[in-house]
Structure formats: C-alpha cells, structure tokens
Design brief:
By secondary structure, the protein is mostly helical. It has 3 helices and no strands.
Length: about 90
C-alpha cells in the first residue's frame, strides 16, 4: 500500500512542477506584453496604419531623396524648413 502512495506523490510532484513552470511562463509573457504595449504607446510614428498627409509627403520627398543620394542623415532644421511652408499656408 505504501508503494502506491509514493508513486502517486511522485506524479503529483511532476504535475505541480509543470503547473509552476506554466505559471512562470505566463507571468513572463504578461510582463513582456505590458512592457511592449507601454513602449509602443510612446512611439506613435511606429504605427504603420497611420496615413501620411499628402502635403507632408510632397514636402519631405525632395529632402529625403537628396539625403539618400548623398548618404547623409537628415537634420532637424532641414525637416522644419521643409515643413514650414505647409504650416504657414494652413
């Protein structure tokens, strides 16, 4: 009779270990999901479904094309200069 109880205790230990592992993985996935959601909320430009205003695209196209051909980064002042005409006319 004692052997049967020991075998059952061994099985319950394995089930408990499996439940513990699943619980830890679930908590890790929840933390990762919540942290990723917070970082995405801080980056509104990362949403690919947001449409770009055609006027902004038209103003930025020559600047970005020139910077791409010259293999140089775009300066913040250049962007402000390219977009200033749009905001003045609005």
């Amino acid at each position: 009779m004692m052997d049967g109880m020991q075998g059952m205790g061994w099985g319950m230990g394995l089930v408990g270990l499996l439940v513990l592992i699943l619980l830890v993985l679930g908590i890790a996935a929840l933390v990762k999901y919540l942290c990723r959601g917070a970082s995405e909320a801080q980056k509104p430009w990362s949403n690919a479904s947001t449409p770009i205003d055609p006027a902004v695209a038209a103003a930025m196209r020559p600047l970005l094309k020139e910077a791409f051909i010259a293999q140089r980064p775009v300066d913040e002042d250049e962007v402000c200069g390219a977009l200033s005409g749009i905001f003045r006319s609005a």
